[in-house]
């Protein structure tokens, strides 16, 4: 192959497919003289940032995308697995087409250390890679140590939270199926903020649908550490009362202090212990481990503070943080839709910063969240967020708030469409 043709193909990305972490990646940017951005985490935030960095820079920025998982699994829609309306395989996607199309090098590995002074990262394979800018969208990790009863277990072994779709979703579904009719399925919810505020309440509905069909004497008990349902409160309560009377019970202000997995016993700060047949414990959370161990979790030692214009960390320069790992702004939940909006805004900012354009950004994106409540209805909530240069944060645009009056068939259709659209955009 002639040298010029070879370089053209490199720029267009033809030779940059997925592979292990060896070889070409380390020196590629330098060879071509392109600035390099490394994106850590190929979930909603990372996939979006990687794709739009290539598009917005017109391929003038080299992008390496790193994630240990061979495939992308969508947590949105995963609660519908409990009611048999979805199966896990429908939520598993390859990232190959997207990375090939946009000339992104995908490295299937875990980042074990970040050295901000030397501007490099260390992979678990032992390889070091330099960056000009680093983007991390590592999602969440769980504060299992809050529960004394499982402190000796590694990674909260035995706790089933299913807050990342995958094996735990299936495990929880199997426990549900194995439960005797008349049993109790208990969901505990931590004090907000946590990933996807409405998802535990949506899960209660989906488990309720399963019970209605197969185990009509069983019960879902929601034990919430918050003073009230944290999202779409009136809508959920109405659905529970009308569609799941005596089946779904909600109790607020239940702060879980400890758990006895052997006996299926939950111990609360104030109330009496509760025993249930299936425990779905959603522990308190913080930013993904790599953010925490790298010193980026400067807000309550849990979340990463960011500059909402550039998504750069407020503690370590040249590292940008996205998605659930960040401390959100007003009415900004930890959601896929927000991670997606931040991924685009961050890609725009880095493109301007690296290609020496003047930074004239006023990011704008929205949160749009559908919750599936019955076999055919859902409800949505929406807010538009705009960068406020005076307050240096994202503010909700006045009048942009929407909340469904009641669950509807139309929202169900739109909710499925929302998922298909976002999957399509981040994966092609
Ligand atoms: C049941 C459920 C339902 C939900 N429904 C909705 C919904 O309807 N709408 C909505 O908007 N949101 C929903 N969400 C929330 C949504 O899934 C998250 O907000 C979203 O995934 C956050 O994106 P992220 O990029 O921050 O993290 P993630 O998507 O979790 O991606 C993080 C990635 O980082 C990788 N990673 C972590 N550490 C490292 C490391 N050291 N090195 C390399 N890679 C690493 C992980 O492997 C992972 O792939 C739901 C969540 C749940 C659990």
What this model shows, in words?
By secondary structure, the protein is an alpha/beta fold. It has 2 domains: 3-141 and 286-361, FAD/NAD(P)-binding domain; 146-283, FAD/NAD(P)-binding domain, CATH 3.50.50.60. The chain has 10 helices and 24 strands. It has helices at residues 3-12, 25-32, 44-56, 96-102, 167-178, 199-214, 233-243, 289-293, 336-354, 409-427; strands at residues 18-19, 36-40, 62-66, 72-73, 92-93, 105-107, 111-115, 120-123, 128-130, 133-136, 140-142, 184-189, 219-224, 248-251, 256-260, 265-268, 274-275, 278-281, 285-287, 319-321, 364-372, 378-388, 393-396, 402-403. Strands 1-6-3-2-10-20 form a 6-stranded parallel β-sheet. The chain has a 4-stranded parallel β-sheet with strand order 14-13-12-18. Strands 21, 22, 23 and 24 form a 4-stranded antiparallel β-sheet that branches. Strand 21 (364-372) and strand 22 form a beta hairpin. Helix 3 runs parallel beside helix 9. Mean pLDDT is 92; it is low at 1-31. The structure holds flavin-adenine dinucleotide (FAD).
Mean pLDDT metric: 92
Radius of gyration using CA atoms only: 22 Å
User: What is the tally of beta strands?
Assistant: 24
CATH fold label of the largest domain: FAD/NAD(P)-binding domain
Q: State the helix count.
A: 10
Structural class: alpha/beta
Helix fraction by DSSP (H/I, runs of at least 4): 25-40%
Number of domains: 2
């Amino acid at each position: 192959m002639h040298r010029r043709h070879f370089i053209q193909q490199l720029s267009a990305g033809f030779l940059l497919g997925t592979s292990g972490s060896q070889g070409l990646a380390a020196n590629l940017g330098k060879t071509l003289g392109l600035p390099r951005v490394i994106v850590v985490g190929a979930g909603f935030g990372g996939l979006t940032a990687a794709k739009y960095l290539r598009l917005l820079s017109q391929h003038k920025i080299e992008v390496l995308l790193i994630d240990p998982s061979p495939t992308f699994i969508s947590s949105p829609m995963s609660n519908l697995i409990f009611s048999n309306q979805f199966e896990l395989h429908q939520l598993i996607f390859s990232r190959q087409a997207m990375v090939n199309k946009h000339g992104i090098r995908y490295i299937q590995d875990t980042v074990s250390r970040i050295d901000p002074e030397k501007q490099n990262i260390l992979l678990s394979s032992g390889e070091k890679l330099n960056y000009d800018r680093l983007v991390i969208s590592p999602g969440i990790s769980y504060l299992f140590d809050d529960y004394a009863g499982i402190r000796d277990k590694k990674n909260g072994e035995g706790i089933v939270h299913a807050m990342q779709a995958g094996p735990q979703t299936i495990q929880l579904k199997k426990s549900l199926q194995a439960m005797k009719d008349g049993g109790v399925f208990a969901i505990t919810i931590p004090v907000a903020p946590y990933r996807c505020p409405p998802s535990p309440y949506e899960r209660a509905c989906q488990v309720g649908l399963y019970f209605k069909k197969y185990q009509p004497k069983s019960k879902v008990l929601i034990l919430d550490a918050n003073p009230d349902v944290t999202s779409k409160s009136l809508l959920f309560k109405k659905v529970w009362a009308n569609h799941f009377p005596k089946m779904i019970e909600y109790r607020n202000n239940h702060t879980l202090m400890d758990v006895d997995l052997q006996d299926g016993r939950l111990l609360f700060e104030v109330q009496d212990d509760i025993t249930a047949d299936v425990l779905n414990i959603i522990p308190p959370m913080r930013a993904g481990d790599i953010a925490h161990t790298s010193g980026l979790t400067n807000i309550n030692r849990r979340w990463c503070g960011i500059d909402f214009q550039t998504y750069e960390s407020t503690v370590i320069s040249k590292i940008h943080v996205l998605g659930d790992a960040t401390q959100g702004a007003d009415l900004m939940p930890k959601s896929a839709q927000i991670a997606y909006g931040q991924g685009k805004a961050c890609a725009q900012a880095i493109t301007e910063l690296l290609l020496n354009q003047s930074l004239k950004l006023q990011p704008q994106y929205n949160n749009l969240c559908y919750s599936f409540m019955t076999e055919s209805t859902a409800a949505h909530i929406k807010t538009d967020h705009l960068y406020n240069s005076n307050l240096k944060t994202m503010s909700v645009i006045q009048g942009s708030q929407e909340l469904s009056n009641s669950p509807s068939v139309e929202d169900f259709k739109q909710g499925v469409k929302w998922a298909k659209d976002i999957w399509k955009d981040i994966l092609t």
